[in-house]
Amino acid sequence: MTILCVRFQLPPASEAALPGLLGLLEEFTPVVEALPPDGALVDLRGAERYFGRGAVELAAVIRVRALAFYGVDCVIGAGPGPMLARMALGDAHPGVTRAVPEDAVAEFLAERPVSALPGVGTATARTLCEYGLDTLGRVAAAPLSTLQRLIGARAGRELHEKANGVDRGRVVPNAVSRSLATERPFTRDELDPDRHRRALLSAAGELGARLRALDKVCGGLTLAVRYADRSSTTRSRTLKEPTAHSAALTRAAYDMYEALGLQRARVRSLTLRAEALGPAEQASYQLTFDPVDEKVRRIEEVADRARAKFGPHAVMPGTLAA
Known about the structure:
Number of helices: 12
Shape: globular
Strand order of the largest sheet: 2-3-1-4-5
Structural class: alpha+beta
Distance between the termini: 47 Å
Low-confidence stretches: 315-322
Radius of gyration: 21 Å
Strand content: 15-25%
Number of strands: 9
């Protein structure tokens, strides 16, 4: 086991603590990939040799230091690769690292629903289940040619490899400052699409306000949906033009949500992340003669001034984009 997937249990609105926590991880290895708003992937191959300790032992040290220096607990999954570490994280609990040894990968995957595999969306899972391939063990045992007929040549090959524990992913060091994220957890697993959309409206409004406060625009948006069974789906979209406009972010978030085709899905949380950040003064905009759009932008400016003077709750995030 050489890869850790760490999720810090940050208090609400405490994403600013993430860079410091990433610095803590970089004391063990420079190969750290930030997963805003509260997580990271860590490649410990070099650290295991240098410190003479295994990944699980190093995870325990990371947990103690996060608590001692930042007062933040964390949950950690460990595995031979990033995909398996992410999946192990779903079973992890504070104080105990969920580890998947290399010789136990097949057993770990066998009984899990096919939707638990990263990259398997609702439509793909539905197609596989219609043919009785509802667990990863059954997918792993299915002939490659069968999977390719069902979901396509490339997707079928990738699915077959992943279901058999072949993890070709790698940890890509990045900078947390290149993205901003906000999460909307539900107090209970939520079935109502209207509540999902209201959560996205609020999240997009908050991201827009934060971008404008930093004089930044984003070139892309990522939506992560976490379900009741701890599986998740992630979709990304490149925006037509860089923006910090809450209404534009909301439209993109709604489009990604609708494309997922969630029907009666039990959603535990929604996370929206603004990516490819850049300076607002260097962004180019398409001119618009829509008076409604211009009015909304002026209202946003007034709301931003109110937040700056009276605090972040002076105007509820997302209300202007309705």
